[in-house]
Amino acid sequence: MGVTSWFASLRGGGVLGFIDRVVSDGDAVNSRRRGWIGALMSSLWMSYMIAPVVQAWSDGERLRVVLAVVTLLGYATLVLCTFIIFRRRGPAESVEDRPADPRLWPFLAAMAACTAALTALLGPVALPTAIFVAVAAIFHLPARESGYVVLLVVLVLLFLPLAIPSMSGLPFYLAFVPTIIWVARQLGLRGERLAELARRQQAELDIVEERNRVARDVHDILGHSLTVITVKTELAQRLIDVDLTRARTELADIERLAREALAGVRDTVGGLREVSLRGELANARTALVAADIAADLPEDGQLPDTPHSQLFGWVLREAITNVIRHSAARHCTVHVTATSIEVADDGRGFGVSQASGSGLTGLRERVRAVGGTLTVSAPKEGGVRVRATVPA
């Protein structure tokens, strides 16, 4: 487990997870509410100062206590203001790219002055309030600027007790609390940036997949329909001087096919295109007859129950289109089982460029999407065999 993923899991639970949730950047609807929660939580952390104030009051130092309470309330107000006014909203990477708000620096200076005043009034027990200066900087400044503030606070907490004997006794580990919060915050922001990047990449992949779907469906629909329209047009031209009634029938079929192709393209763009094996078998029978190719196709009652009817319909459509367009075949056979469909012809076959064309490429993608395989082979007896197999 990497450092980022470790911290992501750490953020999800415990005190650190709660703190990060209440101060994390959210959407516009919840931003103000979360800002108030974060501000109140930060102010409540100062409750540890109640004990020194009570002790000073019991010692009879009334003036110092009053001044300390006023200063403490002012400090809490400053913390509230920083979380309410200077919340850095938006994605993590955009937050880090924005310059620091110059209005925050006077607030930080005032908070540092409050720490100094509380320390002078109540003694070294008030020095750790400097941590709140670092916390405000961590959550409202970019990484570099907040790092400088954290470093300054750490140096004060480490060396001031050494330089002033009366400050001794302060636990040294408190000096590293701002550093831990800063590192945790940066790891959290890095995790947010990685998550945002992953979301954007997934959105781009979804767009590409949708484009490929539309291109694949339009190719399959128009390729098949235009091929059949071409064959029927040639047939109608031959019949117009021989059998006018049949020629008119073929022309009516051409009009119907053109309308169906147009409707199919519209449905594809809208994501509503549906293909069924039974429907494509009927279309294949009509198209093969028009192309003067003998067809051996299963009847409706012979079709097995399969959840892959739509996929097999696409396979049949593309395979029949290639038979009519490229094979010059005299006979075509279709065999369907619950887990496979096979289309074979006795034509001249086709070359490598045709075998790797966009139609078969799109067909392979369809079959692969359900865990199946598509094979295109040339039997010894000639022709081409297209077979799609899916898991049971």
Descriptive report:
This protein has helices at residues 3-11, 14-23, 28-44, 50-58, 62-85, 92-97, 104-122, 130-140, 143-163, 177-239, 244-269, 277-290, 309-327, 352-355, 358-369, and strands spanning 294-296, 331-336, 340-345, 373-377, 385-389. It has 392 residues and is of the alpha+beta class. It has two domains: 3-201; 293-392, Histidine kinase-like ATPase, C-terminal domain (Heat Shock Protein 90), CATH 3.30.565.10. Helix 13 (309-327) links the parallel strand 1 and strand 2. The longest helix has 63 residues, at 177-239. It is rod-shaped. The two termini are 37 Å apart. Residues 1-31 have low confidence and may be disordered.
Tell me, rounded to a whole number, the average pLDDT: 77
How far the N terminus sits from the C terminus, by CA atoms, comes to 37 Å
Could you tell me the radius of gyration in angstroms? 38 Å
Q: Note the beta-strand portion.
A: 5-15%
Estimate the helix proportion, in percent: 55-70%
Class by helix and strand content? alpha+beta
- The tally of beta strands, per DSSP, is 5
H/E element sequence = HHHHHHHHHHHHEHEEHHEE
Assign an overall shape.
Answer: rod-shaped
Q: Please report the number of helical segments.
A: 15
